[in-house]
Structure formats: C-alpha cells, structure tokens
Amino acid sequence: MESPPVSAPVDTTWFTHDRFGMFVHWGLYALPARHEWVKNREKLTDEQYQVYFDHFDPDRYDPAEWARTARAAGMRYVVLTTKHHDGFCLWDSTLTDYQVTRTPYGRDLLGPFVDACRAEGLKVGFYYSLIDWHHPSFPVDGTHPRRDDAAYIEAAADRDIRVYQEYLHGQVRELLTSYGTIDYLFFDFSYADRDEWWGGKGPDDWDSRALLDLVRELQPGILVNDRTGLPGDFVTPEQYQPAGPMSAGGRPVVWEACQTLNGSWGYDRDNLDDKSADLLVRMLVDGVSKDGNLLLNVGPTGRGDIDPGARAVLADIGRWMDLHERSVRGCGPASYTPPPDCRYTRRGDRLYLHLFSWPLSHVHLPGLAGRVRYAQLLNDASEIVRVRTDPDLPAHNARMGGQPADTLTLELPVRRPDALVPVIELFLTPSA
Ligand code: GLC
C-alpha cells in the first residue's frame, strides 16, 4: 500500500521557479580524491580510513566563495552533504565524535555555510546520508565496506538498527534546530529492493514515517526528497535525464535531476569524464522543458576549494545564464512540439526556442503560424524575421514550400550566435 505524502503538501513555488541549484559533496573522501564511495570500493577498515580524519584540515574553506560561485553560475540554492555514507559529520554533533571539530580543522563547517548562502540570497539545503558505514549499530549489509570480512560480520551480528535509528533521528533534530530555517532536505538513500545488497534497507529501518513527521514538525515549510522510501515533496532522478515530465500514479510530480560534472560526486582528482559547459546547459534546458530542476554537483578539494576545472565550467554556464536566464527561471514546459534538436520552455506569453544545433538559415515551427507577435534572439534582442511558406507549393529550386499550413518559419543568420545554446524568444499572441 502506498503511503500518503509527507503530511500536508508544502509550497514548492520557490523550487519550481528557481530551477537550478548547486549540490556540494564534501567530506573526508576529498582527501583520497578517488570517489566518495572509496571506503566501500576499496573495502577499507575504519582504521585505514582514519588517516583522512587525522589529516582533514581544509585551510582554504571559504563558503562565501562557494556561494558567490553558485550565484554567478545562475544557481539559486545550495545543498551540502552534512554527513555522507562514511558517517563523517560536517557539524559539531553532540551525538558522535566522528565529526569535524575532532579533526585538525577543529571547527564547525555548517554554520558558516548556512550564513554564506543566506548572505548571497540563496536557499539552504542539507543532504543527510541514511546509510552509515561508521556507526557501530548500523547492521552490515552488501553496501558496507566490510561486507566480505566474515569475522567482522560475525562480530557485528547483533547490531540493532533501532539504536542507529535513534542516532539518525537525533542528528536530524540537531540539523533542523541549530541553523534557523532550512529550505530543503535530501535523504540518501533506501534500497530495500536490492537483493545484491542482502535485501538492503528501507523505510522500516529508518522509521521513515516518524522521521518525516519530525522533519515537518521542526521545519514546516521544508521540502524533503523521496529517498526515505516514502513519497516526499519531489523525486530525484540521478545521473540521467528523464524522457519527459515525471509522474507517479498518473499525476505529475515535482522533480529534480541531480547530476555530476564528471560522474563522481566527491572530488576525484584523476577523473577525465568532464561534461562540457554546453552539454550542462542543454541538460538544464532539457529539464525545464520537462518541468524539472537541475541540481549540479561540485566536489571541493581537501583544502576546501572548488577546483579550477569546475570553476571554469561554472563560469561558462554563468555567462550563458546572464543573457538567457529568463528562458529557464520561472519557466516550464510548453504545449507545442519543438522541431528536431530543439527544446521549448514557456513563461506566460513568452515561448523560448532553444536550438541545440544550428540549422541552415531557417527553422520551421509546427503549430505556431499566426500565434507569434514578435521574435528575437535572446542574447542580443536582434529581430528574427518570420516568414510563411506557401503550403500549396512544393519545394522547388530556391523556393522552400511544402510546409504544413500551421507552420511558422523563422529566418536565421547563417552564423550561429556566440552562445552555448542560442535561444529565440517568441512573443505569443493572447490566444496561443
Ligand atoms: C547516490 C550515491 C551518492 C551520492 C548520491 C547523490 O545515491 O550513493 O554517493 O551522494 O547518489 O544523489
């Protein structure tokens, strides 16, 4: 039986308006710098992993700089990993010593982060891992770094998930009572259906019903994701672009794709799978055209910097956003079918045609004849001339012809505008 959504529905207006946020994966795994699952992948013991705790000293941590970087890229909210699967906490939790104030750095990281976001006018989000590979009462399963160690498993046989549950609920209480208003919470993740992970863990293990009630009680307006195993306020496709608007039980749902710059969430020094800035802009636009958000990740280094490659790609995205923001912010899908290699977004009487590839001289827009008052390139407000081809005349020599009667044709400059994704702004007639 499907559970009802997290108590009363909350207002998601800011979220579906803002459309673009920054995910920050940061913790001890920034030091090995080979993926945030390194403890799992390399089956490291707590003792082996301890070296990163003992050397955690991000001397260049400057959350104001992160917040400025996010805003300049056109992002309007930031979500930080307060605790990842390795169990390390970025705040001064009273419930564990496995936290930042016990490292050489010795100070809370979360308070300054929250203040920096607010100062930059950004909404604040927390990520919290339900999985915990450090906690002594977290029952060992197939995701655990020690999953192949028979002696360890035997010694852990009587671990009681209820003890861990209490810790988990207690930490969430700390997070949601110590830093003022928190706008967004990303729990990660449930996997009760995963046989290869020994049956996994899910809502019964986390006591998700009580957890979600607690979250709402402490932060009535907060948006919570769907990874506790119970429905939340939005769904979270990860590392893929949905084929269309998302729905559950036949009803549209609010969604946000979380995406990496290079396939890894944590800082991954030798990774070469960088996505280009134009691909990332296309992903943002593609999502908005399907009524979704983009949460784009950075994995700062062990010293606390967003690395130069990530900064460069975010700066490129920011240059595009500077000129094209109004084609994504506050926009959603349109009911018209776009031409090949294009996406439409819409806000009120504005229809935005995003051209993922630049055609020769013309683009044909089915269904838009008589529905457009004016058209311009968005980057420089230069007019785009509208023509109608005669549907009764076939294409011949220099005559285009042959387009259906309801098609509007636009004349394009041969030279592609210098923008990662060129956008044409169409002013629709009142009836369109
Ligand atoms: C996954 C991974 C994790 C990452 C998250 C982001 O569930 O386990 O490392 O934090 O996705 O959505």
Count structural domains: 2
CATH arch. level architecture of the largest domain: Alpha-Beta Barrel
- Note poorly predicted spans: none
Beta strand %: 15-25%
Kindly name the structural category: alpha/beta
User: Biggest sheet, in brief?
Assistant: 7 strands, parallel
Order of helices and strands: HEHHHEHEHHEHHEEEEHEHEEEEEEE
How confident is the prediction overall: mean pLDDT?
96
Radius of gyration: 24 Å
Strand element count: 16
CATH topology of the largest domain: TIM Barrel
The first-level CATH class name of the largest domain: Alpha Beta
Distance between the ends: 42 Å
Description:
A hairpin with a 2-residue loop joins strand 6 and strand 7 (251-252). The chain folds into two domains: 13-327, TIM Barrel (Alpha-Beta Barrel); 342-428, Sandwich (Immunoglobulin-like), CATH 2.60.40. Helix 4 (63-72) packs across helix 11, helix 7 (161-177) packs parallel to helix 9 (208-218) and helix 10 (277-289) crosses helix 11 (308-324). The strands form four sheets. It has a seven-stranded parallel β-sheet. It has helices spanning 13-18, 38-41, 46-54, 63-72, 110-119, 150-155, 161-177, 203-206, 208-218, 277-289, 308-324; strands at 20-24, 77-83, 123-129, 184-188, 223-224, 247-248, 251-252, 255-259, 292-298, 342-347, 350-355, 362-365, 372-377, 386-387, 408-411, 423-428. The longest helix is centred in the middle third of the chain and has 17 residues, at 161-177. The mean pLDDT is 96. With 432 residues, the protein is of the alpha/beta class. 25% of the residues lie in helices and 18% in strands. Alpha-D-glucopyranose binds next to loops.
